């Protein structure tokens, strides 16, 4: 595959916006496929995956497997200026969650569906243990 020119990509925060939706959809699809149908259960279980803390952990799972282009985007997105962050997230977790979301958004934008699926599957399986830690 030809290297990705970072200058040809949308802004990293736009990629993160897209990646957030992609990951949320993946989580919701996985939960419904597992037979979780009650809205309260869906909402509660999705928190094991879609919080800044969970996504920061998820980035740690995929970082060793990133290509040079992917790692460069993750670094750039992690250093992006944020206007705000949720009160429940540490600045570090929020930056890392944004970086993960930008990575997913970049894979979607560049048409790398198989790679997106590969990393999403790794994230979903690697973060499943967090469901047991929910109240």
Structure write-up:
- By secondary structure, the chain is mostly helical.
- The protein has one domain: Ribonuclease III domain (Ribonuclease iii, N-terminal Endonuclease Domain, Chain A), CATH 1.10.1520.10.
- It is built from six helices and no strands.
- Helix 1 (12-33) packs across helix 2 (39-50), helix 3 packs across helix 5 and helix 3 (52-62) packs across helix 6 (113-127).
What topology emerges from the helices and strands here?
Layout: H1 12-33, H2 39-50, H3 52-62, H4 68-78, H5 91-109, H6 113-127
Helix pairs in contact: 1-2, 1-5, 2-3, 3-5, 3-6, 4-5
What is the CATH architecture term?
Orthogonal Bundle
Say what oligomer this is.
single chain
Into how many domains do the coordinates divide?
1
CATH topology: Ribonuclease iii, N-terminal Endonuclease Domain, Chain A
Q: Give the biggest sheet.
A: none
Strand content: under 5%
Report how far the terminal alpha carbons are from each other.
Answer: 44 Å
Give the CATH H-level superfamily. Answer: Ribonuclease III domain
Specify the structural class: mainly alpha
Number of strands: 0
Note the total helix count: 6
Q: Based on CA inertia axes, which overall geometry fits?
A: globular
């Amino acid at each position: 595959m030809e290297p990705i020119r970072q200058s040809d990509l949308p802004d990293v925060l736009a990629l993160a916006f897209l990646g957030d939706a992609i990951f949320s959809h993946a989580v919701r699809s996985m939960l419904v496929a597992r037979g979780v149908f009650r809205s309260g259960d869906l909402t509660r279980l999705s928190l094991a995956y879609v919080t800044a803390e969970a996504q920061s952990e998820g980035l740690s799972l995929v970082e060793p497997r990133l290509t040079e282009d992917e790692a460069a985007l993750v670094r750039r997105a992690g250093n992006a200026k944020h206007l705000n962050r949720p009160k429940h997230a540490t600045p570090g977790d929020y930056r890392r969650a944004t970086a993960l979301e930008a990575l997913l958004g970049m894979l979607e934008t560049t048409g790398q569906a198989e790679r997106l699926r590969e990393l999403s599957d790794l994230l979903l399986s690697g973060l499943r243990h967090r469901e047991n830690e929910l109240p």
